[in-house]
Each structure stands twice: as C-alpha cells, then as structure tokens.
C-alpha cells in the first residue's frame, strides 16, 4: 500500500478535489462580488446574499453528509476488494438524498420570512433574502443528488470527475451572473439578486447532468432501486446522522456569528458576508487534502494497513499547512485590493480590513483541523467528530462570542470565537489520532 501514500497519488486525489471543492464557494463569491457592485441598494443586496448563502451552506452541509458516509463505505470496501457488497446500497443512498432534499425544500421555503427574521434581517434586507432564497432553494435536489454521486467518485479514489463537473458549473454560473444580474440593454432585463439565484440553479443543473454521465459511464454502479434494503444502509445512515448533528453544530456557530453581525448593523453584516465567504473559500481549498485523507484513509483501514495510515497523516499535514501558508501570503500581499473586489463602500471596507488579518492568521490551524476531519471521516469515526464539534461549539465558540460581545468587540469578537473554535477542533483531533494509531503503525 506504499503507493497509496506517495506524493503523486495523494495529489492525484487532492488537486482535483481542491479545484472541485473551491468551485462551490467560488459560485457564492462570484454572486457576492457581482451583487455587491449593483447600482440599486448594493449593501442591502450584499447583506441578503451573505445571509442566504450562509443558511444554504448550513442546510447543504448538514444533509450532504451522506456524501462523506458513502465515500467512507465505498473506499473501505474498495480496500477490502468487496465493492460488490455495496452495489445496491449506492442507489438507495442517492434516492434517500433526493427524497430528503424535497422535504428540506418544502419545509424551509414556506417559512423563509421567519427563518431570515431569526438572522435579525428586517426591511429591505429581509425582503431580498426571502426572494433570493425561494429561488436558490429549488436547487436542493440538484445539489444533494450531485454530492451523493461525488461521494461515490471519491470512494473510488477518483476526484477528477467531480472536478470536471464543478468547473463546468462554475463557468455557467459566472457567465450567467453577468448576463442576468446586470442584463443586456434591449435584450435581457437586469434581474439583480434574482438573476444571481437563477444563475446558481443553472450551474447546479449542469453539475448534476455531468455527474450522472460519469456515474453511468465510468463506475460499476447503477441507479436501479432494490427494495431489499442493503444491510449496510443502516450503518451509512447512522454515520450520516452523526455527521448531521456535527454539521448542525458547525452551522449553529456560523448562524450565531451572522445573527450578531446583522444586529450590529448593515455594514457589519456586509463585511461579515465577505469575511465568511473568503473563510469558506479557504476551507474548501484546504479541504482538498482532507478529501484525499478521507478516500485513502478509508482504503487503508479496509486493508488494515495502519503503518501507511500513520504516514498518510504526516504527509497530508505538511501539504495542507503549505497550502495554507501560500494562501496567507497571497492575501497579505493583496490585503486592501481583495476587499475592493466585493464592495466599494468605505465603511464596509474599513470593517473588513480591520478583521481580515484574524481570518488569515488562523489558516494553518484550520489546515490541521480539516485534514484530520477528512481522515476521521474516512475511518468512519463520525461519533467522535460529532462529540468534538458539540464541545467546540457550545463550550468554546459560544462562550467566547458572548464574552466578546459583552466587551463590545463586535466583528473582532466573532473571529476570535472562530479562532478558539478551530484550536479546540485541531488539537483534539491530533491527540485522538496519535493515541489510537501511533502504536498500531508498527
């Protein structure tokens, strides 16, 4: 199994995963950059896009955890040379995702006004948020089915197919954003925020169509549904349920941050929207190596190759930190210019610039946390990941945010809380992994 943890093989999985991973936040960043520069109410439109984007990410992250569960199970069975045992499981998991996405759509679209009021949105920001969300939410079935298929690809140690799908979707989104948000005189009316929502739907549809093509043409699986429940479905759904809870805690932290920022004022939530989406972009970028750890780690566990598993953790840690340092250096070099891409309001830019350095400083810590997250998911350690996120969120992030708010730190306090959150996650994962696998590797 030495070849599995070679630099070439790790990067064969990680680099396409990085490109595929950043395509989704790139869609949101494109929306925010374009919406933040419209002529009509740019600050309110930017704030609405940021709030809705955070809520969408929360929902998608929570319900798309079946992707990670599918990836872990497929990779473990691949390592044990038993793929035949999960052939009926895959369509059952994909149809589950589709049915669940419909439930999510109907329950959230109906209560959109109440949901975004809970984010402290009001007036024009609330109106924009509700309108934008009701269109974007139509994409839940498209995205969740696509993610389930991407989980199959990753479990088969192939992230190239997902990368191609994601790049095509990002290209469609960027092109349609310019056409639909700004419009073309005499041909296409300017649709502003609604135009960005329709562009995102088209991008999601593009990714799903391409993912289905690769699924049917390149994998040994099919979508023929067997009503004899695969015995592994219960384990997959249990793993996904633990990851649901974990991701719900993760997104509670993001919700709380945005709710506090909105309460501070429209300029604060506009700046927070930019900061959060850049943080998410960095997270998905670094997460490419976590995806490699997820896929390869599951395969090594299936083969009971603990020595290679230990070496994998060390190598991927180095690569992830290196990527984080490169991102920090680039952003430090273009510190002022980055804010101008998203908004031209002086007050928003001043708030953004005053806090952006904290987002940059935490990137190496994020890299370690995300990398071990990926490996633990591949090993099926969903219960531990769930408990750790609950501790980090409710005993780390939330108290820090409340204390910071009491002392009037505002956006500084929000990002200090995120830093504490990531420190708890990264340190606990490293300690757990060392205790469990350091002595097994010999």
From TrEMBL:
It is found in: Cell membrane. GO terms for cellular component: plasma membrane. It is a multi-pass membrane protein. The keyword Transmembrane applies. Keywords: Antiport, Cell membrane, Ion transport, Membrane, Transmembrane, Transmembrane helix, Transport. It holds the Pfam family MatE. GO terms for molecular function: antiporter activity; xenobiotic transmembrane transporter activity. The chain crosses the membrane at residues 12-34, 46-64, 94-115, 135-153, 165-184, 196-216, 236-257, 269-290, 319-342, 348-372, 384-403, 409-431. The keyword Transport applies. GO terms for biological process: monoatomic ion transport. PANTHER family: FMN_FAD EXPORTER YEEO-RELATED (PTHR43298:SF2), MULTIDRUG RESISTANCE PROTEIN NORM-RELATED (PTHR43298). This is Multidrug-efflux transporter. It comes from Salegentibacter flavus. The lineage of its organism: Bacteria, Pseudomonadati, Bacteroidota, Flavobacteriia, Flavobacteriales.
